[in-house]
Design goal:
GO terms for molecular function: 2-succinyl-6-hydroxy-2,4-cyclohexadiene-1-carboxylate synthase activity. It is an enzyme of class 4 (lyase). This protein is α/β, with parallel strands linked by helices and 284 residues long. It contains ten helices and seven strands. The longest helix is centred in the middle third of the chain and has 21 residues. The radius of gyration is 17 Å and the shape is globular. The structure holds the ligand C=C(O[C@H]1C=C[C@H](C(=O)CCC(=O)O)[C@@H](C(=O)O)[C@@H]1O)C(=O)O. Ligand LVPVRBMU binds next to α3.
Length: 284
């Protein structure tokens, strides 16, 4: 399967458009929101009520997650295929343009969509995201790590992986969350499947995508980068992204780590809503 050069067109045919699970709620201009690895539409449960009065939320379960399928073929998970299916979803909903919000892995998908079809994206919100790894050697090493983890997910099973994943350093700040919040996150992750997560990692993992660092300067849509101050790794990545993006604001949220919308939902939504209204005011 061949893909376009990502400059406005992908040659892949929409393959999963009718199988993607989509929820639409809210009132206002459309906001397509994309969850992170091990997430789903339920990822937004804490923030949807705060965002719904300001936007029509188009929540999607990416392949291998939530109530969307987990195909066997790895090409299904490639970023270019995800972009093609999401653009077809917008077409089906007769949405010429949307604002786009992606968290972590969903932010990497959002960046691919914005790079492939910038004319479709009125505003880009990236929460704890990255444009991938710049160096081929980094990508190769990450692919090897992700492949090994994917195999382990399938060998050790879902419960093992969910507990392992919650324990990684990147999510250390979540230890401060109420136990009920952590339990709800664990329950959400357990509603996925070991196969779906493993396949997503093999097809859409950080090491499997191309680097989008060189594409950032041509993304002229208003872009909001959100990171948690306690997530030093992604604060640093997003500071570098902000240097390359031409129309960008980087907001660092206090007392939050990687999953800002879970750790500081009110602050997260205030920043998102202000940014969305700013963009609308400029267009009128
Ligand atoms: C562990 C690293 O990378 C992973 C961390 C975050 C991303 C993600 O989507 C996590 C969502 C969540 O569980 O809340 C994930 C991704 O982008 O696919 C990364 O693999 C790291 O140290 O970079």
């Amino acid at each position: 399967m061949s893909f376009g050069d990502n400059r406005g067109e992908a040659h892949a045919a929409p393959r999963y458009l009718h199988e993607l699970y989509v929820e639409q709620v809210g009132h206002g201009p459309p906001l397509l929101i994309l969850h992170g690895f091990t997430g789903s539409t339920a990822e937004w449960d804490e923030v949807a009520p705060l965002l719904m009065p300001h936007a029509t939320l188009l929540k999607v379960d990416l392949l291998g997650h939530g109530r969307s399928p987990a195909p066997v073929e790895l090409d299904a998970y490639r970023m270019e295929q995800a972009v093609t299916d999401l653009l077809a979803l917008l077409d089906r909903n007769r949405l010429e343009q949307v604002a786009l919000l992606g968290y972590s892995m969903g932010g990497r998908v959002a960046l691919h969509l914005a790079a492939a079809a910038p004319e479709r994206v009125t505003a880009l919100i990236l929460a704890s995201a990255s444009p991938g790894l710049a160096e081929a050697q980094e990508r190769a090493a990450r692919r090897a790590n992700d492949e090994a983890l994917a195999d382990r997910i399938e060998q050790q099973g879902l419960a093992w992986f969910v507990d392992y994943w919650a324990s990684i350093q990147l999510f250390a700040s979540q230890a401060q969350l109420p136990s009920a919040t952590r339990a709800a996150l664990r329950a959400r992750r357990l509603r996925g499947t070991a196969h779906g997560y493993a396949q997503s990692l093999r097809g859409m993992g950080t090491g499997h995508q191309r680097s989008l660092w060189q594409e950032l300067p041509r993304l002229t849509m208003p872009t909001l980068l959100i990171t948690g101050m306690l997530d030093q790794k992604f604060v640093a990545i997003n500071e570098q992204m902000a240097e390359a993006l031409p129309n960008v604001e980087h907001v660092r949220i206090a007392e939050a780590g990687h999953t800002v919308h879970l750790e500081q939902p009110q602050a997260f939504c205030e920043v998102v809503v202000r940014f969305l209204h700013q963009g609308r005011n400029k267009n009128h």
